[in-house]
Amino acid sequence: xxxxxxxxxxxxxxxxxxxxxxxxxxxxxxxxxxxxxxxxxxxxxxxxxxxxxxxxxxxxxxxxxxxxxxxxxxxxxxxxxxxxxxxxxxxxxxxxxxxxxxxxxxxxxxxxxxxxxxxxxxxxxxxxxxxxxxxxxxxxxxxxxxxxxxxxxxxxxxxxxxxxxxxxxxxxxxxxxxxxxxxxxxxxxxxxxxxxxxxxxxxxxxxxxxxxxxxxxxxxxxxxxxxxxxxxxxxxxxxxxxxxxxxxxxxxxxxxxxxxxxxxxxxxxxxxxxxxxxxxxxxxxxxxxxx
Length: 291
What we know:
The chain has 12 helices and 12 strands.
């Protein structure tokens, strides 16, 4: 993340990075080199989004970096009123994913970020699963004049895939179902599907959603979604992609409830069934059901 943002700051004088305290230490040396373009506003999320919007209205391209729930939920009204309503452009990079900060409790969790932001018309939502994918997506979007949200995770995939903004990557083709996966769920989903006759699509752009690729791959009217977000986040998109077809939808995701349990990220994954063996069992059960 730092490499891509630093490159943007160095090559475009009309850009600025606003930090919400988190990550400030990592940019200390860079902020000394570019004192007018790197600012640590502090723990003032809603106000920082408002400041960023004011800058955007003057032609500056702001990038804001912070923890997912503090930007998506705490500053949601500012994102809506100051950026979406005003058609202002800017970048919002968050860390923490759904529950990377597991030891800090559920005030620092945000499995709802994608579902929440999909209610803001025109918001671009990017969910890279590796640093390389972030670099590709960020360079594609960072100066395009739109509001772009980048969801980062500390628990990246080992498998790297060439990605393109707005396009799903077709990793495997089969006849019994389409399996869609996102972000850091790629590794376990690929492993779960190794010996299954299914198509696997990997999405790193959540919005705008790639309806065309999914529609073209629907040789069987069954779609299974493997997602590290709230279950059901993409169901409306799947129905739209089916374009009038009668389809069956199932999947695995974070239950729509407050996550009150504590433990490591890995322990939470085990609890939710985010493992290759559990995902394979769920997909196989789905395949065995009548269409």
